[in-house]
């Protein structure tokens, strides 16, 4: 029986994946790297320890991940400071439903605590969550299961009692490895064949998660 719902953040609750895509590409191109959309999609929710060798294999051994990432963060922060962030469709409906029904909630995100707090606070959703776990709080980031296991432990729930909501293949793999019920809400891409095998369901937006909880 599902008693807790654990949320990814970027691309799931807030519409920032399009910004990550835009500014990864812009930052990489500033430094002369031929990064493409496919390269960025491949590292969504991927911890640096996994993203670095992947990108160096694809773009060359001289790819300076941290240099590019630093500029990407700067450019993205400037955009968000000017325009803010938008929440994804159905988020409010789902969070209100979970609160009314007594479900526990947590965030499991690759984003650091300060930005997580700032983003969720800016859309008035920070107080909806019982726990927030960010990648720097665990030893291994996504697609390892650590972040989801930590979230479940903080909620005092067994992983099997938790539904995990994700928009990326790396996030789904993390939740699946943790033994949770993985739900994908696609953002920039639909699940590929390998990801589809790991899913309990794939839904169009967060409001549809309510029907899944009603049926389980």
Question: How are the secondary structure elements laid out?
Answer:
Elements: E1 4-7, H1 17-30, H2 37-42, H3 48-59, H4 65-83, H5 91-101, E2 104-109, H6 113-122, E3 131-134, H7 146-155, E4 162-166, H8 169-177, E5 181-184, H9 193-196, E6 201-202, H10 208-215
Parallel strand pairs: 1-2, 1-4, 2-3, 4-5, 5-6
Q: Report how far apart the termini are.
A: 7 Å
Q: Structural class from helices and strands? A: alpha/beta
Q: Can you tell me the residue ranges where pLDDT is under 50 for at least 5 consecutive residues?
A: none
What spatial form do the alpha-carbon principal axes imply? globular
Order of helices and strands: EHHHHHEHEHEHEHEH
Strand fraction equals: 5-15%
- In DSSP terms, counting alpha (H) and pi (I) runs of 4 or more, how many helices? 10
Largest sheet: 6 strands, parallel
Number of strands: 6
Q: How are the strands of the biggest sheet laid out side by side?
A: 3-2-1-4-5-6
Radius of gyration: 17 Å
Residue share in helices? 40-55%
Determine the mean pLDDT: 96
Description:
The protein is 48% helix and 12% strand. The chain has ten helices and six strands. Strands 3-2-1-4-5-6 form a six-stranded parallel sheet, covered by helices on one side. Helix 9 links the parallel strand 5 and strand 6. Helix 1 crosses helix 4. The model has no long low-confidence stretch (mean pLDDT 96).
């Amino acid at each position: 029986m599902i008693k807790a719902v654990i949320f990814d953040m970027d691309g799931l609750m807030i519409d920032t994946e399009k910004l990550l895509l835009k500014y990864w590409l812009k930052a990489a191109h500033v430094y002369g790297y031929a990064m493409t959309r496919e390269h960025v999609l491949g590292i969504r929710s991927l911890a640096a320890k996994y993203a670095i060798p992947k990108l160096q294999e694809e773009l060359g051994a001289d790819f300076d991940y941290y240099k590019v990432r630093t500029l990407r963060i700067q450019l993205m922060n400037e955009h968000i400071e000017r325009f803010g962030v938008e929440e994804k469709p159905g988020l409010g409906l789902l969070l209100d439903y979970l609160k009314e029904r007594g479900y526990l909630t947590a965030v499991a995100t690759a984003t650091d605590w300060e930005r997580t707090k700032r983003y969720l606070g800016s859309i008035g959703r920070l107080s909806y969550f019982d726990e927030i776990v960010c990648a720097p709080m665990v030893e291994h980031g996504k697609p390892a299961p650590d972040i989801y296991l930590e979230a479940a432990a903080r909620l005092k729930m067994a992983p099997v009692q938790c539904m995990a909501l994700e928009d990326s293949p790396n996030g789904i793999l993390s939740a699946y490895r943790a033994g949770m019920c993985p739900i994908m809400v696609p953002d920039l891409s639909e699940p590929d064949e390998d990801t589809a095998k790991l899913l309990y369901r794939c839904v169009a937006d967060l409001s549809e998660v309510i029907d899944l909880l009603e049926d389980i």
